Amino acid sequence: MAVQAIVWGENVHDRENELVRSIYPDGMHGCIAEALNESPDISATTATLEQDEHGLPADRLARTDVLLWWGHKAHGDVDDGIVERVVERVWEGMGLLVLHSGHFSKVFKRLMGSSCALTWREAGERERLWAINPAHPIAAGVGPYFELEQSEMYGEPFGVPEPLETVFVSWYEGGEVFRSGLTFQRGGGRIFYFSPGHEVYPVYHDATVRTILRNAVMWAAKPGIRWENVADAPNRPVGEALEPLEEKGPRLHEDGEAGYR
Amino acid sequence: MAVQAIVWGENVHDRENELVRSIYPDGMHGCIAEALNESPDISATTATLEQDEHGLPADRLARTDVLLWWGHKAHGDVDDGIVERVVERVWEGMGLLVLHSGHFSKVFKRLMGSSCALTWREAGERERLWAINPAHPIAAGVGPYFELEQSEMYGEPFGVPEPLETVFVSWYEGGEVFRSGLTFQRGGGRIFYFSPGHEVYPVYHDATVRTILRNAVMWAAKPGIRWENVADAPNRPVGEALEPLEEKGPRLHEDGEAGYR
Amino acid sequence: MAVQAIVWGENVHDRENELVRSIYPDGMHGCIAEALNESPDISATTATLEQDEHGLPADRLARTDVLLWWGHKAHGDVDDGIVERVVERVWEGMGLLVLHSGHFSKVFKRLMGSSCALTWREAGERERLWAINPAHPIAAGVGPYFELEQSEMYGEPFGVPEPLETVFVSWYEGGEVFRSGLTFQRGGGRIFYFSPGHEVYPVYHDATVRTILRNAVMWAAKPGIRWENVADAPNRPVGEALEPLEEKGPRLHEDGEAGYR
Amino acid sequence: MAVQAIVWGENVHDRENELVRSIYPDGMHGCIAEALNESPDISATTATLEQDEHGLPADRLARTDVLLWWGHKAHGDVDDGIVERVVERVWEGMGLLVLHSGHFSKVFKRLMGSSCALTWREAGERERLWAINPAHPIAAGVGPYFELEQSEMYGEPFGVPEPLETVFVSWYEGGEVFRSGLTFQRGGGRIFYFSPGHEVYPVYHDATVRTILRNAVMWAAKPGIRWENVADAPNRPVGEALEPLEEKGPRLHEDGEAGYR
Question: Mind listing the pLDDT tens digit for each residue in D98-128?
């Protein structure tokens, strides 16, 4: 069965800004989903902020292998309960791709535990992304580097924890660098942050960007794998110990009592 | 100047539970601070939940190199604003030692971005902590392993991100294992999680545990280093680019406008 | 096409030791290859020390997605040239599974750059392997833990670099712990070290061990991905710079000269 | 007591190349040692290739907290026995700073287990080093970035394992990027690779570079800590097990026999 992906789009500038609308008539999420569906191994649909439960009801998320997240202007409008739902699904094993301005989304900040801050400049300058590990599955087919003629500059320091892997590092015309492709792990979930994607440039029409997104979805997907009850903290009673065990000394908790959270 | 440390204690069982009070007449925080102050390089004070601002006003935190956190029953009573204050200080460079049941504290969960869950058993069983890297500064003087005759079992899976370093792994009489000493980095801050410390056993009177706490405070301290404005996301205007840069193409933001968060 | 795997076996005790021969009539490599071939996604063959080029000619390695390595008594007999050939193939992207006493193989030591030492005891004691990340693809289907009734104890400290991921940690009856499943990356290659596998116990007949080996082969495989010329250090002449560049200042090297190695 | 550092220099171009001699009349090693000795906390001496045992007799290394390594033209002339001696001292806990073309030194390649390859261009172009973690002790006092007006370009992909921490990333005038400051751990030893330092530019006279070298020496030093017998693989006899243990099943080794290596 194909990997089940949802492209979540904020869908604000996509509707309200004439320029963005002209570049992405089906919304950025629509364009990205189309890119994913070019692979026979991926089945991608979309979800947006204005939908009921932001288009992410629990049962839909439960069937999803990889979620992609693009948000910018309306981070604050995302419901905290939905954020927690997404976060728990990541812990369970759902893959997550966070795109561009999604670095400041509630979901990403919640999973990183860090500032997620960076510096930025909107000048339509050239960005050149270098493959740090050209044999990483996410970089397959990219070559040593690729260029975006117009890009928003995102500059270091990028306030994220040390990543598991650095896949891309960007060079900018204006003199900055940025770790533009990074992998993380939270619970059972694989996370990929990918920085290109400013809405006033046609980044998601770029063939290499589309290849990377497809690669990353396949890399992040773990169909059939689920860390059940990932947030539980079960008591293991003495009587059920795996090795012979005699209780010694004092106790704080009664039998069967839950721990404090 | 000595490293400035604060030992934060929840101070609930320390006062309300007769057994805990008998083991720790000055509170667990008092006992830990005493252990730290045995080093001429550390100056440790205490703070507790019931104090104003939980004893952690901003100016006091600003002067603190390392914070130690022990909480259990009253995690939910810690004010969210104070949590954010502590978290930002960690990002700025303050060291953080999270002890035992502090794995479920708001501060730790906020910084990890993961479930922080584990399995547990309160049977007074033997725990043997093995030094994974005997030459890590935190393990200095510990030897290949040490034992706690009575300990609460904390078992894997421990819901934390892949650590920077695994310093200790524990063996339990009842058959479980646990990564009992782990390091992490968030922003400028070094974090050490250390699992021993159940309140009904005299763990913080153990000489090796006290050595490890002193070692860890020195490892986590970065006196004089501060990542200023760590959560800012400054715009770098075209006119101030480090390399000659001409603005190209369309823009979303006006000059001087802040980014979306 | 199925993932192409080679199970490399030293094949010394397999032939010379009556007990080992009785447990593994087709050799340990034969037993492991059989386990892998139970998956329709894997096509596994074997290679052994006594074969020409140890069964690992360059063209065969070039077609191989994942190599498994079991050696013990005859580490020193492995040709250094073949070791370098294997190592370069790993850098290029071939997966590598190092099994049990292979921790002291030339190939593993060469790739780790560390001592690869550990403590050990041959007492037929119980080993319990805990899944640290139950949703890691290598741990799929294993459950929270599994047991080997008879195992050789391998104890910490294990002299390897901090791993990318800790997948399993073992508990031993005699009181030790061991990081029994670890992942690493070297160049384009994914590496998994898995400690069970002493030749006088029927470890590779264990159903869970066989599941893990199949999982790990699939995890390590990158069919179709190759980091070409992985060890080259090409000069990028000024005239071919990606940005306009004027040569400034003195030089050590003439045009077209190779760098020093 | 001050941290004991040795600056190892190949001392070939330093003597034979007129330009290098004019920039570094006391050799590059002499200039670097001078930079270190500007700190009251460091006591730095030098050692060079042409000295007996390359200036690195075992007893001298045993007293050394941090070794710095600069080599280029004569990597192949370094004695393999001395390389192993240095490597074992790193495993024991000695810090190691590898500078510039030292990426291809035997010592660094031996410790990394990877190709250590990169791309390069000698054009005297501008390099701008960005601090990825401005609060890392190695980056203290550096600010968000610093520039070298003339530098040799070192470009990605850099064939090293995923680092523990990325401290600096470089931007180059010609369009490349490079992870110019990386930390690693091998056994007890902390390793820092720092890429600037081409011999025909006055890089080690740069005030910021000198600050970074001093910072890195202090970060890598672990005075008083030694992982004894780091490469031993001791047998733990059944009779000395930490938990009651009865021998079960067959054995390969006789009592007191050493393991195979």
Answer: 999 999 999 999 999 999 999 999 999 999 9
Q: Does A238 touch chain B (CB under 8 A)?
A: yes
Q: Give CA–CA dist C202/C197, Å, rounded.
A: 8
Ordered by start, the domain boundaries in chain D are 3-220
Closest Cβ opposite residue B115 in set A115, A117, A187: A187
Closest by CA position to D101, among listed D169, D197, D207, D200: D197
Q: Does domain C3-220 have CATH number 3.40.50.880?
A: yes
- Identify the burial level of B43 via C-beta atoms within 10 angstroms of its C-beta, where 0-12 means exposed, 13-18 middle and 19 or more buried: middle
CB C178 within 8 A of CB C155: yes
Of D130, D133, D134, the CB nearest to A177: D130
Chain D residues inside the 8 Å CB shell of C118: 233
Residue C170 with chain B: CB contacts under 8 Å: 177
Phi, psi of B50 (to 5 degrees): -75, -10
B129 touches chain A (CB under 8 A): no
Mutation for A interface: D154, D167, D169, most A CBs within 10 A: D169
Question: Do A233 and B122 count as a contact with CB atoms less than 8 A apart?
Answer: no
**Among residues A201, A186, A111, A187, which one has the least CA distance to residue A148?**
A201
Mean pLDDT over the full length of chain A: 96
Residues of chain C scoring pLDDT < 50: none
Complex ipTM over 0.90: yes
DSSP E strands, A55-175? 66-70, 95-99, 119-131, 145-155, 165-172
User: pTM of the predicted model, to two decimals?
Assistant: 0.97
Taking CB atoms and an 8 Å cutoff, what residues of chain D touch C127?
none
Closest residue, chain B, to A19 (C-alpha): B250
Tens digits of pLDDT across chain D (261 residues): 899 999 999 999 889 999 999 999 999 999 999 999 999 999 999 999 999 999 999 999 999 999 999 999 999 999 999 999 999 999 999 999 999 999 999 999 999 999 999 999 999 999 999 999 999 999 999 999 999 999 999 999 999 999 999 999 999 999 999 999 999 999 999 999 999 999 999 999 999 999 999 999 999 999 999 999 999 999 999 999 999 999 987 888 877 777 888
Contact call for B175 and C133, based on CB within 8 A? no
- Say whether domain B3-114+180-220 belongs to CATH 3.40.50.880: yes
Are the Cβ atoms of A133 and C188 closer than 8 angstroms?
A: yes
**Beta-bridge partner residues of D111:** none
B-contacting residues in A 81-100 (Cβ below 8 Å): 87, 91
Residue from the list B101, B121, B252 with its beta carbon closest to the beta carbon of A238? B121
CA distance A192 to chain C (A): 16
What would the two tokens of residue A26 be?
């089906």
pLDDT at A58: 98
Torsion of CA B32, B35, B40, B45, to 10 degrees: 20
Asked if D157 lies within 8 A of A132 by C-beta distance, the reply is yes
Give the pair of three-digit tokens for residue A239.
């009587």
For residue C48, the cross-strand partners are C9
> Under 8 Å CB-to-CB from A59, ≥6 apart: which residues?
none
DSSP string, chain D: -PEEEEEEE--SHHHH-HHHHHH-TTHHHHHHHHHHHTSTTEEEEEEETTSGGGG--HHHHHT-SEEEEE-STTGGGS-HHHHHHHHHHHHHT-EEEEEGGGGGSHHHHHHH-S----EEEEEEEEEEEEESSTTSGGGTTT-SEEEEEEEEEEESPP--PPPSEEEEEEEETTS-EEEEEEEEEETTEEEEEE----TTTTGGG-HHHHHHHHHHHHHH--TT---TTTT---B--GGG-SS-----S--SSPTTPPPP-
Task: Point out which residues pair with A130 in neighbouring strands.
Answer: A145, A169
